[in-house]
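Quick sanity check, 3-isopropylmalate dehydrogenase:
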Amino acid sequence: MPNVVVLAGDGIGPEVCASAVEVLRAVAPDVELEHHLLGGGAYDQTGSPFPDATRQAVLACDAVLLGTVGGAQNSPWNSLPRPLRPESGLLQLRMALGVYANLRPVKVMPGLEGFSPLREDLARQVDVLIVRELLGGAYFDPRRAIEGDQAYNTIGYSKAEVDRVARVAFDAARTRKHEVTSVDKANVLEVSELWRGVVQDLRDREYPEVKLEHEYVDSVAMLLVKTPGRYDVIVTENLFGDILSDLAAVIPGSLGVMPSASLGDGPGLYEPIHGSAPDIAGKGVANPTGTILSVAMLLRHSLGRDTEARRIEDAVQGALEHVRTPDLGGQGTTQELGAAVLARL
Ligand SMILES: NC(=O)c1ccc[n+]([C@@H]2O[C@H](COP(=O)([O-])OP(=O)(O)OC[C@H]3O[C@@H](n4cnc5c(N)ncnc54)[C@H](O)[C@@H]3O)[C@@H](O)[C@H]2O)c1
Ligand SMILES: CC(C)[C@H](C(=O)O)[C@@H](O)C(=O)O
Ligand SMILES: [Mg+2]
């Protein structure tokens, strides 16, 4: 029996996970669920944002469903030494699972075009998959420090790290429009020069039928707003991907509707792309769509259950025609939207 570990986390995490777990139970009743701690709440209870019990459980399971971690700007968690902060728990989890490729699909659901900050005709064209490298670059490079009145971080990449994530992007492009845009800053950074070379070599050797473009990150930030329909698959390094994926994620109207999958060679990690939303936590109005759609990605990528994944995606689409949470201009609650999805499965 497949085993899924649920890490509800902090803020709205437990609220959106509750809805998503009900959906998972409904379409895959045979899946065993285990709940564990991660983030600020985990630190409060155990002294670690990524406790040993959580580490052992995720390493032994088939897939992990995560809510969100982190507190408000003024949370005492933000004054802890960096390795004890909630966000460090998430980074340690990603590293432990070895999930080097973060897939963030951005698409505007029919009927929601009006909520996009972009013109409706532009929003309608958007169907982009951002593949973000997740275990390298400034996030994990050990060459980092605050030394007196100076501080530095380093964006380092090896050829092997670039190659493995670029493969994920090219493989994904083969199932889509066969176009990859590799995003870098090769006009300034040596690390981008290496990145560009590795991606180009891989394309020439193994993916000749995929069209490859190289673009600068500053230009992509502009073009994702101006002409977002031009992109199919975007592949980029960790920090650029973090920023570009939040930028792209507002195109569908709310951060609350976007799912993600983080894949490596072991269990996959599935989470909505939004944060813990301290401003609305506990009010029961968070949009659970991103987490519910992350369950669909979990079923597809980790359990090989594409039919069930599609059932969820169709049900979400139908539910949003009738029930909307305040981030999408409605008055529905998390629970009501979750129930509307369940009713359409
Ligand atoms: N993967 C993660 O767990 C993750 C990701 C990003 C930020 N964070 C953490 O979350 C905390 C808050 O960060 P932030 O405020 O910058 O970003 P955020 O994504 O939590 O919130 C940004 C805005 O979007 C709204 N929003 C987010 N998700 C929503 C949802 N599902 N439904 C309705 N509205 C939603 C919030 O109410 C807020 O107004 C910080 O501690 C940050 O480090 C965690
Ligand atoms: C919370 C933070 C560590 C995380 C990141 O920067 O990767 C978040 O912004 C994300 O995009 O998942
Ligand atoms: Mg982010």
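Posting the structure with no commentary besides this: Residues 70, 87, 90-91, 242 surround 3-isopropylmalic acid (ligand 2) (CB under 6 Å).
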